[in-house]
Amino acid sequence: MKKFILAVFILLAASFAVSLSILTAANAKMMPMMYKNAKLIAQGKKLFYSKDIGTNGFSCATCHVYSAGTYINLHGRGMVIRPIKNAAKKMAQFDKIHHMHMTVKMKDKMCVKFALRGHISKSGLKALTAYVGSLK
Predict the structure, then answer these.
(1) How many domains does the chain have?
(2) Looking at the domain assignment, is residue 84 inside a domain?
(3) How far is residue 110 from each of residues 11, 18, 88, 105, 116, measured CA to CA in Å?
(4) Is residue 70 part of a domain?
(5) Residue 127 lies in a domain
């Protein structure tokens, strides 16, 4: 009976070691991509809270509060700016104002250009889009 328990223990330990080596190899391949994506999201977060991407002293976070919408008076009419939470999922819906499906990238670019009255580089837009897309 002791030999049987020892054999089962050795078999389980060996299968655990093999599983661990397979997972480690898979993670080693994914690590550079995950690090790059995390770095991009961190850059996007920095831009989201930065007042430097616009010329009017506002940042994306000024209007897009994470938990609730913000009421602003824009061009003489009041409107509620949607919260940024789950923005990527909401973007897939048809935008009635623009009569088209908007992507997060398109919305980010429009917001920087029209609301913040600024300009954003392609790499900055990619980072900002990665950050907004990561919010759930």
Answers:
(1) 1
(2) yes
(3) 60, 51, 15, 9, 9
(4) yes
(5) yes
Helices (H) then strands (E): counts for the chain: 5, 4
Q: Residue 34 has what pLDDT?
A: 55
In a domain, 115, yes or no: yes
- Name, in order, each residue with C-beta under 8 angstroms of 68's C-beta and a sequence gap of 6 or more: 83
What domain range includes position 61?
Answer: 41-136
Q: How far apart are CA 116 and CA 53, in angstroms?
A: 7
Residue 122, pLDDT above cutoff 80: yes
Average pLDDT over residues 107-125: 87
pTM > 0.70: no
Residue 113 is which amino acid?
K
Nearest-angstrom CA–CA distance, 82 and 44: 19
Tell me which of 69 and 101 has the higher pLDDT. 101
Q: Are 128 and 47 in contact (CB under 8 A)?
A: yes
Question: Of the candidates 78, 77, 73, 109, which has an alpha carbon nearest to the alpha carbon of residue 91?
Answer: 109
The partner residues of 73 in beta bridges, in order of sequence, read 78
Domain CATH code at residue 63 = 1.10.760.10
The dihedral built from the CA positions of residue 46, 33, 125 and 96, taken in this order, carries a sign that is negative
